[in-house]
Design goal:
The chain has 397 residues and is α/β, with parallel strands linked by helices. The chain has a domain of 57 residues. The protein is built from 16 helices and 10 strands. It is globular and about 65 Å long.
Length: 397
């Protein structure tokens, strides 16, 4: 891949005024773990969702296009430097990194940009993710400049991806989305979170079910892959059934490429935490969330989406598969958990939250004794296991 990159055109870019240095945002989807991260905006333009802790206390801003291009320049220089070093000097990573620092200073490359480029090279240079929370808020003309710049230097990448909000997509025309797809943007991640207008309003999501549907259908019509995120537990005990059924209905109408499951956690620095503690929101237990998931999957019908459970917060990561053919398998896994005795459920819950169990099938493996010992050591019981789960999950966001 590096050899191919070396044959691409490279232009020495002019220095741009007021550039504060290479930047990287705080998050990206788990499925973008091998992607090169290019920061287009800072933080979230909405930033009012009650359940989200990521950008609270921050202000949204759009990075000047020139600064984004300068970051890309740094990545290009870093990759070319890596290529030349590998060809000429195998010991440049000496114990004190002194030689590396001289290389970076001589080539005007930020150290973070260098290590990002090094990681990306070692990962195969297949995908790029545009940060932060909603890059699509930029005018389409500016996004096209960034996308075309990336494709000029990295024509071999398989995927360029971004987060987006349904309300933002709702305001863009189909023609604009097709332009972005043709320029290389071929996957979007959108937080549906819920298809219930009741839940969406309570969580201050700033979008309606119908806007979710129209935005999602527009993305799919434009030929862009779409990941829609569903949060089991977001309806709480009061609205769980409506949340499950209405979310499934919205996704049935959209038929996104992926449906990604993200179980609700409530960290202290969120408005939802205050709602929970003041009993305005009643949090579901693990078992109640699994029952909700069963209802949700049962109501998914007539679509060809792939369900992904690619987050550490999910109790049953095996709930994955292609619809409709894998639906019976997913339902069977859920029923297997629900049929466990209370003691077995406790062991699995604790083992999964500790990171010991990677799937329900490991419950009867040799790891079980290790988990039981930890349960006894920490005095975890059926009456306090939810407190333990809440503490662990809030730390994993």
């Amino acid at each position: 891949m590096l050899k191919y990159f070396g044959e691409c055109k490279y232009m020495e870019m002019e220095e741009r005024d007021q550039y504060q240095g290479y930047e990287q945002g705080p998050i990206r989807p788990p499925s973008e773990d091998l992607s090169l991260l290019i920061r287009v905006t800072r933080n979230c333009p909405w930033n009012r969702c009650s359940f989200c802790p990521v950008y609270k206390g921050t202000h949204f801003s759009v990075r000047p296009i020139e600064h984004v291009l300068k970051d890309i320049d740094q990545i290009v220089r870093a990759i070319l430097l890596i290529q030349s070093i590998l060809e000429e000097d195998d010991d440049f990573l000496d114990p004190e990194l002194a030689k590396l620092n001289r290389y970076l200073k001589r080539n005007k490359i930020d150290k973070q940009a260098f290590f990002d480029a090094l990681f990306w090279c070692s990962s195969g240079m297949r995908s790029i993710f545009l940060q932060d929370a909603n890059s699509l808020v930029l005018p389409t003309k500016k996004l096209l400049i960034i996308l075309n710049y990336l494709k000029d230097f990295f024509p071999f990448v398989e995927r360029i991806t971004s987060y987006a909000r349904s309300q933002t997509i709702y305001t863009k025309s189909l023609f604009e989305l097709v332009q972005l797809r043709n320029a290389g943007l071929n996957r979007l991640h959108i937080g549906l979170e819920s298809g219930s207008d009741t839940v969406l309003k309570f969580m201050h999501k700033g979008v309606t079910k119908q806007q979710h549907i129209e935005a999602g259908k527009k993305v799919m019509e434009a030929g862009i892959e779409l990941s829609e995120y569903y949060i089991p537990g977001l309806g709480g005990r009061e609205h769980w059934l409506e949340h499950a059924i209405e979310s499934a209905d919205a996704l049935n109408r959209i038929n996104p490429t992926f449906i990604r499951i993200r179980t609700l956690a409530i960290p202290p620095n969120t408005p939802l935490f205050d709602d929970w503690k003041s009993e305005r929101f009643q949090k579901c237990t693990d078992e109640e969330i699994v029952q909700e998931l069963l209802c949700f999957i049962q109501h998914l019908d007539g679509i060809t989406s792939t369900i992904k459970s690619d987050h550490i917060l999910n109790l049953l990561p095996e709930i994955e598969g292609k619809l409709p053919e894998d639906k019976p398998k997913m339902i069977s896994i859920i029923n297997e958990f629900l049929s466990l005795s209370p003691e077995e459920k406790l062991i699995y819950q604790v083992g999964r939250r500790m990171g010991t169990f990677q799937s329900l099938s490991e419950l009867n493996s040799g790891l079980k004794l290790f988990v039981k010992n930890n349960i006894e050591r920490h005095n975890i019981t059926l009456s306090n296991v939810e407190d333990f789960i809440n503490q662990v999950m809030s730390r994993k966001l």
